[in-house]
Amino acid sequence: MVLCGLPGSYFPTVRTFWEWLGPDKIVHSIMFAALSFSIIIGYRKEYLEEDKSYRVKLQWITLVISILYGGLTEILQYYVFVNRYGSVYDFCADVIGCILGVFIFKIIFRKKMIKK
Fold first, then answer.
1. Mean pLDDT of the chain
2. Nearby residues of 17 by Cβ (< 8 Å), 6 or more positions away
3. Spatial distance between the Cα atoms of 51 and 54, rounded to a whole number of angstroms
4. Range 39-61 average pLDDT
5. CA-CA distance, 40 to 83, in Å (whole number)?
6. Contacting residues for 30 by C-beta, under 8 A, at least 6 apart
7. What does the domain layout of the chain look like in residue ranges?
8. pTM of the entire structure?
């Protein structure tokens, strides 16, 4: 939340539609991939020991929590934080990062699930 609340003058501005894939969106994606990965890593033991339906449930719970947090940060940037501007493109980058974090977790722990 601290990084999302820093004044906008600390970061480069986007001037055209095609620049939305710039460093700002990559940072958003990385931050939220780390967030969703961190959330689901807390459930690692249950994730590996329970059945497939429980794993899917944990993935959805992780995605919902991290996506809602991304939405909250964009709303706060728009209404509360000084020199910050909430953006739909930033939120899209947040969502992509959240999905990426869960996907990375699945890749890392796939071998352990196969052994089971």
1. 82
2. none
3. 6
4. 86
5. 32
6. 97
7. 20-115
8. 0.77
